[in-house]
Each structure stands twice: as C-alpha cells, then as structure tokens.
Amino acid sequence: MSIAENQPLYDADDLKRLRAARFERFGRWLLPVVVMIAAIWLWDRVVVWNEIPHFILPRPGLVLQTLISDWPMLFSALMITLQITMMALAVAVIGGVGLAVLFTQSRLIEMSFYPYAVIMQVTPVVAIAPLIFIYVDSRTAGLLLCAWLVAFFPVLANTTLGLNSADHNLRDLFRIYGASRWQTLRYLRLPAALPYFLGGLRIAGGLALIGAVVAEYVAGTGGQGSGLAFRILEAGYRLNIPRMFAALILIALTGVIIFAGLSFLSHMLLRKWHESAVKRET
Amino acid sequence: MKTAPMGQRPRVLDMNRVTKTFNGDVVALRDMDLSVNSGDFISLLGPSGCGKSTALRLIAGLSSTSGGRITWAGGQSENDLGVVFQEPTLMPWATVAQNVWLPFRLKGKSYASVKDEILEALRLVGLEKFLDAYPRELSGGMKMRVSIARAMVTKPRLILMDEPFAALDEITRFRLNNDLLTLKARIGCTVIFVTHSVFESVFLSDRIVVMAARPGRVIREVRVDAPYPRSEEFRTSADYAALCRDASDALREAMGETA
C-alpha cells in the first residue's frame, strides 16, 4: 500500500468536489421547486393584499379548483391538441427525414428545393394559417398542416447536417470496400445522423405544440372537437379567467412532458455510444 | 495469375511511373515505380508532402492517377484491400465485433456465416474478450487493434496502413509494432506502411522506400535483410542501429534536397 494508514481517504479538494456534486444533484430539482412555491405564494399574497377580484386575477387555489371542476372538458380539449401535435410531429419526422435523405442523395434536388424549405420556415405560421383554412376544408387537416409547417424544418435541417457529418475516413473505407449507395446510407450515414436527428426532434416536439395551438387560434371555430387553445379563447370571451389559467397550465405541462419524453428517448438511443449521453467519470 | 519465377514470391501489384498532379500544376507524386510481392512489408518513409499518403490513396483507388499505371497482378478482384488509417476510424455506434464484420457485411455476408473469421481476427489482435464492447470503452491502442483486425479479417491481398500508430504513445507504439510483426508472421499478409519514423520503418519492414517532397518522388530504397520474426533483441542490435543510420542518411538527403 502506498497510502499511509493514518492518512484521510479524501483530501480537501475531494471533499470540495463531493460537496459540489451533492449540491448539484439536489439543487437541480430543489431550487426550481422552491422558486415555484415562492412564486405561487407571492401570487396568492398579491391578490389578497390588493383585493384583486377573481375575474381579473384569480388566486392559485381557485385555478386549481377550476382545473378539477372543468377537468372533463379540459381533458378532452387536451386530447384534441395532443392528437394534432403528435400527428404533426410524426408527419414532420417522416417528411423531414425523407427530404433530408433525398437532399443528401441528390445535389440537384437539394439545390432546387432547399430555398423553399427555408422560406416555409421563416414565414410566420400565423400569417399562412388563415389562407390554409380557406383552402383546406377539413379542420383537422388544416391544423395538422399548420403544426407540420412549423415542426418539420428542425428535423430536416438537423438530419441533413447529420447525414453529411459521417467521418470522411469511414466514407473512404466504404468506397474501398465497394459499398453501394444504399449500404452507405443504411450502415454509415443514418447511424451518424441519429444524434443530430434526435436533437432536431426535441425542438420539433415543442414547435409542433406551438403550431397546433397557433392554428387553433386562427381556425377559431368552437363546439365539438375544440382543442385547448380554443378553450382559452372561449374562456377569455366569457371572462372566465380561472379557466384560462387552468388551460394555460395544461398546455405548458404538455410541452414540458413532450420535451422530457423526447429527451428520454434520445438518451435511451444514444446512451451506449454517443458523447452527449455517456456519463464521464471525471 | 502468372506463375512467379523460382524462389520468388508472386507479384501483387506494380506501380509504373505513377504521377499525380492537383489542379494541373501541383505535383504531389512524380514517376513512382514500385513492385509489391506477396509477403512484402514495405514502408514509405519521408517528410510531409512527399506524396506517401497520395501513393496510398492511388493504390486504394480513392483518387485517380494523372499519369502512369497501377496494375494488379491477375487483375483486380473483390478482395484486394484492407486499410488502416491514422485514426482507428471505427463506427462508434457499433460494437467491436460489428466493426470487424463491416467488410463482410458490405459484401452481403451475414454475421453468422463469418463469425469464425471475426473471432479469429480479434483473437489475433488479443481482443477476443471485447466482442461486445463499444469503441468508446477501449483505449487508443485497443481501438487501433480493432482497426487492424477489420483490415485483415477478409485476408486481403494487400493491407495499406497510413501512419496507423502516429497518434499513439511510444510504449503502445512499440507494443503494436511487435504485435504487427507477430501477426504478419502468422497470416503472411502483404503490407504497405506509411510512416515518418525511421525506427518504426527499420523495425517493421523488409523494404524502405525513402521519398522526398516538392515534387513527391522516390529517392532511394533501403533493404532490411534482418530475418523475421524480429523481436526486442533486434531493436537493440548493431544491425538495427546501422540500418537506422542508413535510413536516416537517406531521409536527410530527402530533406536536404527540399530544404
């Protein structure tokens, strides 16, 4: 043994590092929760101290009550919005990855269509949505189209970048072994693109929700099959402020869950080999 | 394939006045002649810009010659080449076994049908216990071993190595040099090895082709007649020291002409 028996196991630096790690572990969860509790408490106090009427700013408790009492209606609205979001995300993945593969296989196609993909991305969806609802009869199809428009570009851009970032020596190796275009795509380019694609997917998940909500605002018609955004609008007209807050909380929560879910998926797919998901010792 | 004369090993490849220019005026390689026989271990030794890597790329068919000819004895076949780059160049998403499977996989062979070859190749580089490991779990030297296993798993006619050990530490490098020779003795492969280390080239090869830069060209060939297998004793012998001096002189000549 090279370490003397009576020497402590950890030196001062080790202890400092351990303390920092422990703080990091708890702080990451604890601090946001503390901030939220403080904010809710402050909100409640502001309403009480200033005697603000509940149709202007409800107390947090009332919002929670509304969330529970309106749950059947809010839940079905949430399902509608979620359905549009998920379908848009699925189509964005298929379209984005498909187009990215086409782009990398043919310079001609890339040069011809890439500028239009960019134009579609930079034009605000609110500006296009009214036109879409004039020409598209089906409300669902219109919503889907809007959400897709916003969500597909990050998938396309990231996947294209990923497909082109395969190691050049590996590409040479594939050439030397006489790999076909399909083999190079299947065994080299697609796996190399996976981390980039998953990064794009995480962004697209949030954007699909934004696209769906914005489209609902524009589409605006109510009744059966209305999503959360329409419920917010409707509650606004009726000055039902607690319900507006309740629906808003649901939308925010949905966004967080989508992001967390996609992050988890990304971690599971990459944890064995990619730097972003591998835990380092040091 | 033509039958070789008595006492000579069969020809693998001929380079005949091979020239490579870029943009018509930058001469990367001029009039290179080289004959490779089966079982040869040839080092291309020279300063940077002498065209040694260009020569490898031409042989590998990754770029086309501007002049001269490269002829494979008996014509080109499906299994001419294995390549080891300066970096291990492994697929990070695939296990060690899957990486070694690659050359077979690209020829449409299932893993089960070539499992024995893959295991044998990994056994030869001492990594048979790491079949299911991912590259990131291996050290630099181990990754390079996987890369070597992949290059030789199909038993190609010629293995090209482009400064494979340049990025490794000295101790690992010595060990891999020894292992490479053991490997060569066992499977009798033919190797063209690019290096800028005099010591490495003398220890490993039976022929050292010394090259000079601007324009890239061959200036001398040094023969290393020491018998294989070579061991650590060779590294400390007077013969080795003398040969290193020869090769160094040739290299100095190469540098001097361009300085």
Key terms:
heterodimer; A: 282 residues; mainly alpha; MetI-like fold; 2 domains; 79% helix; B: alpha/beta; 6-stranded mixed beta sheet; 3-stranded antiparallel beta sheet; 8 helices; 9 strands
Topology:
The complex is a heterodimer of chains A (282) and B (259).
Chain A: H1 12-50, H2 60-69, H3 71-105, H4 107-122, H5 125-135, H6 139-163, H7 168-176, H8 181-219, H9 228-237, H10 241-270
Chain B: E1 11-22, E2 26-37, E3 41-45, H1 52-60, E4 67-72, E5 81-84, H2 96-105, H3 111-124, H4 140-152, E6 158-162, H5 170-187, E7 191-195, H6 198-204, E8 207-212, E9 217-223, H7 232-235, H8 238-258
Parallel strand pairs in B: 3-7, 3-8, 5-6, 6-7
Antiparallel strand pairs in B: 1-2, 1-4, 8-9
Helix pairs in contact in B: 2-3, 2-4, 3-4, 6-8
Can you give a write-up of this model?
The complex is a heterodimer of chains A (282) and B (259). By secondary structure, chain A is an all-alpha fold. Chain A folds into two domains: 52 residues; 219 residues, MetI-like (MetI-like fold). In chain A, 79% of the residues lie in helices and 0% in strands. In chain A, helix 5 crosses helix 6. The longest helix of chain A is centred in the N-terminal third of the chain and has 39 residues. Chain A is flat, with a radius of gyration of 25 Å. The mean pLDDT of chain A is 90. Chain B is an alpha/beta fold and 259 residues long. Chain B has a domain of 149 residues: Rossmann fold (3-Layer(aba) Sandwich), CATH 3.40.50.300. Chain B is built from eight helices and nine strands. In chain B, helix 2 crosses helix 3. At the A-B interface, helix 7 and helix 8 of A face helix 2 of B.
